[in-house]
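Input sequence (378 aa), recorded before submission:
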Amino acid sequence: MNCPYIKKCGGCQLGHLPYDKQLKKKQESVTQLLKGFGKVDPIIGMKDPYYYRNKVHHVVCNDKKGNGFTGIYEEKTHHVIRVDECLIENKKADEICMTIASLMKSFKMKAYNEDTGYGFLRHILIRTGHVTGQILVVLVVASPVFPSKNNFVKALRKVHPEITSIVANINNRGTSMVLGEKEQVLYGKGYIEDVLCGKTFRISPKSFYQVNSVQTEILYGKAIEFAALTGKETVIDAYSGIGTIGMVASDQAKEVLSIELNPDAVKDAYANAKNNKIKNIKFVKADAGEYMVKMAAQKQKADVVFMDPPRAGSDKKFIDSVAKLAPKKIVYISCNPETLKRDLGMITAKGYKVQKIQPVDMFPGTGHCEVVTSLVRK
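Predicted structure, token format:
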């Protein structure tokens, strides 16, 4: 990867290596970590490892002349590097960021300054539908008062008529969190839709949706394959987000229970099930571990549990709750092999045996790797 920002940005830890060497390094790393649990299958890489990120986040800044520009934080600092085109981000999203920055001066729009607390535009978040081509632009602003918002939307859409929705997200807190709680739809529906594994999903600003659509199809395909569903199973999709894995599994299961704590994701999940005419899925807004403890106490059963936790992995409470439910099979989708190793240690101590370990390269250029692991009850 011949990237001009690679030394400062820190986002692509392996970007200096040819792609085949990146894959080799990831394979070695995952094998070293997980070999104690069984054979690690060869990593599945991308045919084209560029411009794959369907979610792009840029910080907004002003230069010394007052012109706007967007970019990303230099590694371990709050210094913003101007980025016009990132080799792993959707090209169109980067173009839109540059257009927004170029419009700022004529609209007297100042970038928010974290040190002084003054300014208006903080961040730009852009989500693109890989299959549908729909584009959602989220302008993270420091105040609910958006001067000339209609004219700004008109000017942006004049350059980019392909934008399908624009949302102002109000974040007036002194925080490193990108998104605030309140939103105002400036144009379109306030969300986009995309197609994944034959199902249509609604994606709103705060929803979790995998950033690499091409590899997600492979990842979820492997997860479903490992579950070996026959149509008779009760399936739990824990940490379910907008319901992607549960809905993909619903075709081959008797019933699916999706458990998710984020209310925005649960709202999207209901809409997704309705749009896809899926009748055998139920959504619960709850902490997955706590809910499963209650299920076990009520002697409820599950045949298969899909778990897709955040980078920090799962925890003892959740794994204890899974063990109490005693499913025949657990399919663990991990975005952090190090926390996966820790969690597999806890799960295997509860009477489960690792069957398959499959790394999938979801994040070319970076040091991250996703791994699907199937476990069966001994």
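Checked by second reader. The two ends are 45 Å apart (CA to CA).
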